[in-house]
Amino acid sequence: MKKGIHPEMKLLTVRCACGAEHKIWTTKEQLKVDVCSNCHPLYKGSGGAGLIVDTEGRVQKFKKRYEGKY
Amino acid sequence: MTYEFIPLKEKYQKEVVPALMKEFGYTNVHEVPKLVKVVVNMGIGEGSRNKETAEIHAKELTAIAGQKALITKAKKSISNFKIRKGMTIGAKVTLRGPRMYNFVYKLINLVLPKVRDFRGLNPNSFDGKGNYNFGLTEQLVFPEISPDQTKRIQGMDIVIVTTAKRDEESRRLLELLGFPFKKQ
């Protein structure tokens, strides 16, 4: 690689909103991630209706509201 | 820059290689398909009329990849595309070795989950020779890019070149590395 033209990279532990940590090399000092492979429904294999990205607990709130009514 | 840790490479050596050897019956570890390179290309097209656009996007690519992006120029004039020879038409970056593994890890674990309405990658987008192509519609899915400072939404094409001879081998390699393919 040619010297002096590439950005410097640092090994950074990126913490996702779900608490999972990913160690990657990056050009930035800090990174914020709100969804990752640990919390995305597709990766967890729930499939179907579980494909709704749920970062605020909305699905659970909805389920709770209608609990026991049907 | 020294690499005391390369994301994904250990997983490839410890998990993917033995699994592939078992499944496809390779007798030598060198037969096992591996990643060769990843090319990220932004075809800027219409926005190429001013040179700054290409430079801005090249900078973004550089931040994403950790390696300086190349500004691509038209090889010849094509009047239908309204381009003349030598005009800037995009930016690309070719990643190999540790940077490639790092990029692929980031792609699988941080970038693809952020894609809007992501339902998995198309398992048929192989080229018949064991290479995989797909596109992203916006650069904002990368954690290095902050949406506030971005003026123009620009997608990109990503090519993953492997040593696999057939699509099935390549698909299995990428699957074992963690690529989220759509279920058929």
Can you describe this structure?
The complex is a heterodimer of chains A (70) and B (184). Chain A is of the alpha+beta class. Helix content of chain A is 17%, strand content 17%. The longest helix of chain A has 8 residues, at 58-65. In chain B, strands 2-3-1-5-4 form a 5-stranded antiparallel beta sheet. Chain B is globular, with a radius of gyration of 18 Å. Helices cover 31% and strands 18% of the residues of chain B. Classes of the chains: A alpha+beta (70), B alpha+beta (184). The interface between A and B is medium-sized, with 30 and 29 residues.
Indicate the topology.
The complex is a heterodimer of chains A (70) and B (184).
Chain A: E1 10-15, E2 21-26, H1 41-44, H2 58-65
Antiparallel strand pairs in A: 1-2
Chain B: H1 9-24, E1 35-43, H2 51-65, E2 70-73, E3 88-95, H3 97-111, E4 132-136, E5 156-162, H4 167-177
Antiparallel strand pairs in B: 1-3, 1-5, 2-3, 4-5
Helix pairs in contact in B: 1-4
Largest sheet of chain B: 5 strands, antiparallel
Order of secondary-structure elements of chain A = EEHH
Instruction: Report the mean per-residue pLDDT of chain B as an integer.
Output: 87
Give the DSSP E fraction of chain B (strand runs of 2 or more residues). Answer: 15-25%
- Overall pLDDT metric of chain A: 76
Strand neighbour order, sheet with most strands of chain B: 2-3-1-5-4
Low-confidence segments of chain A, ≥5 residues, pLDDT <50?
none
| Shape label of chain B | globular
The percent range for helix content of chain B is: 25-40%
Taking all Cα atoms into account, the compactness measure Rg of chain B is: 18 Å
E-strand count of chain B: 5
Structural class of chain A: alpha+beta
The helix-strand sequence of chain B is HEHEEHEEH
Share of helix among residues of chain A?
Answer: 10-25%
Trace the largest sheet of chain A across and list its strands: 1-2
